[in-house]
Amino acid sequence: MHNLIFAATVLGIIAGLRAFTAPAAVSWAARLGYLPLLGTRLAFLASPITVGILTALALFELINDQNPKTPSRKVPMQFIPRVLFGAFCGSAVGLHFGSLWTGLLCGAIGAVIGTLGGAAARGALARAFGKDLPAGLLEDLVALGSAAMIVTHHL
């Protein structure tokens, strides 16, 4: 149960930082066999097509996020998908650990934490650096590193 709560919450936090990084990580985990979803409604996540699409979207997001014209993640148009992606990723982990609803809830809560906490941390770092780009790149590294850790060590 602890692994479920930890993994689902961290994936939610990652979704709050970078919306498409968490689903891409879950898809890679399913594809590589770390997250067995065969026989579930989420088995499609292991498909090479799904992995490719989600990876492309995550890479596009990493690039687009550095654009100063990108809207704040706290506006509903950005916030709601992050919570939904966090819940979705959490539910995938919940299926693996036998508790879909716990995973879904932890993923959604994690996404709220990641969205609001990530925005606050990035703002503080941007002020400390005197510009946003280093803060954004550091946030990218945190999201990608956390995703890799969860996929390889906690599923």
SSE order and pairing:
Layout: H1 2-17, H2 21-32, H3 48-64, H4 76-97, H5 100-129, H6 132-153
What does this structure look like?
- Helices cover 77% and strands 0% of the residues.
- By secondary structure, it is an all-alpha fold.
- Helix 1 runs antiparallel to helix 4.
Overall 3D form: globular
List the secondary-structure elements in sequence, H or E.
Answer: HHHHHH
Secondary-structure content class: mainly alpha
Provide the gyration radius in Å: 15 Å
Mean residue pLDDT: 96
Strand content: under 5%
Q: Could you describe the largest sheet, including whether it forms a barrel?
A: none
Given as residue ranges, the uncertain stretches (5+ residues, pLDDT < 50) are none
Helix content: over 70%
Distance between the termini: 11 Å
The DSSP helix count reads 6
Q: What is the strand tally?
A: 0
Using brief descriptors, characterize the structure shown.
0% strand; mainly alpha; 6 helices
Summarize the structure.
By secondary structure, the protein is mainly alpha-helical. It has helices at residues 2-17, 21-32, 48-64, 76-97, 100-129, 132-153.
